[in-house]
Amino acid sequence: MKILVQKFGGTSVATRETRLKAVEHIEDALAKDFHVVVVVSAMGRRGDPYATDTLLNVVDASDPVAPRDLDILMSCGEAISAVVFASQLRSRGHQVTVLSGGQAGIRTNAQHGNARILEIRPKRILDALQEGHIVVVMGFQGESPEGDITTLGRGGSDTTATALGVALNAEYVDIFTDVEGIMTADPRIVEDARMIHRVTYTEICNLAYQGAKVIHPRAVEIAMQKNIPIRVRSTQSKDEGTLVTNAWTVLESSVLQDRYVTGVTQTANITQIQVEGEGVGRLNIFDLMAEHGISVDFISVSPDRIAYTVADADADRAVSLLREQGLEPRIRPDCAKVSVVGTYTGMPGIMARIVEALSSEGISILQSADSHNTIWCLVRRSEMEAAVRALHSKFGLGEANRD
Ligand code: ADP
Ligand code: MG
């Protein structure tokens, strides 16, 4: 059985018109003899009536909600979306089976709000496909060992799609969204961002981990384990978008010998924390942060100074924890991280070009760090967009026909 998993994001299922485009993609696949499993996100974006964020606000902010209850509430967005989508498919004469995450066999741990998939038992999906049905699965959700509804955290529907792709040994997992594919930078910031037609799992994972939210990195990692190719594409167009696959296929396509920078990404809303004083480098304040579930980044430790960043939302908590230790941290809120992501960013001269690009725009680098494939710079939030554009242009990423 040739199986295709097609995931449609929030904007793709938002209205009857956009859903019609989605249906046409499904019909194209059926015409090519694929059995189709559809994964849907909640309809629309923040502010729309049945979007996840809207559902969260249904409960009065001052009332306590149990994490288990919150998952029940949040999973409704995909339930509504799946039923609406299935009805529109039926109106075109298709036979459809709608399944919740649990009914689709997605077993997770019990970590409500950010559950991990443990196992998928796809029997019910396979039976329905066998009978010629299109199966519509509610994205972003699974079922705990106790039989409770769980949700998979940010980008959860992407994860549902690739995990099903692996469990069903699909030919492809299609991630349909509101852009043509994966680009060298967020097209909302960089006007001449270029489409990346072919890319490796690793490159895309790096981009996604550094903030390119077009696909969730966990979803990419899952597909990579079994080499299931992903296509990131636009619901509005017939183009095949970006093909994400293993290194071999990408390199074979001749292309990218000189592509050492894949793209530029950004993450906003970061606070920089610095602690100075004789011997502070020996204090283990990172244990303290970890104990309180505060994730830290940009760590730089020297004997008399520690600097690191946290999400703006965690900053107050981090600061009070440090004060309780008798420390007087210096705080710089409203920062952003811009990253130059690639395959060979360890190459000499890259940092020099980054410094050149940013200083020519009058942007100061507040802190920087690097690994073998990424260089990160901390900048002021107000300068984030300018920094992304300057770096994108410095590395010539907008030029046409690079691949
Ligand atoms: P969906 O609801 O379909 O999952 P998302 O909002 O999660 O859609 O992802 C699509 C968005 O990702 C685009 O609208 C775009 O602004 C953003 N984006 C960020 N970085 C990139 C990138 N490098 N390439 C393409 N899109 C990007
Ligand atoms: Mg998304």
TrEMBL record:
Signal peptide: none annotated. Residues 2-234 form the Aspartate/glutamate/uridylate kinase domain. This is Aspartokinase. It catalyses: L-aspartate + ATP = 4-phospho-L-aspartate + ADP. PROSITE patterns: ASPARTOKINASE (PS00324). Pathway: Amino-acid biosynthesis; L-methionine biosynthesis via de novo pathway; L-homoserine from L-aspartate: step 1/3; Amino-acid biosynthesis; L-threonine biosynthesis; L-threonine from L-aspartate: step 1/5; Amino-acid biosynthesis; L-lysine biosynthesis via DAP pathway; (S)-tetrahydrodipicolinate from L-aspartate: step 1/4. It comes from the Bacteria. It comes from Alicyclobacillus cycloheptanicus. Keywords: Amino-acid biosynthesis, ATP-binding, Diaminopimelate biosynthesis, Kinase, Lysine biosynthesis, Nucleotide-binding, Transferase. Residues 331-393 form the CASTOR ACT domain. Catalyzes the phosphorylation of the beta-carboxyl group of aspartic acid with ATP to yield 4-phospho-L-aspartate, which is involved in the branched biosynthetic pathway leading to the biosynthesis of amino acids threonine, isoleucine and methionine. Its EC number is 2.7.2.4. Pfam families: AA_kinase (PF00696), ACT_7 (PF13840).
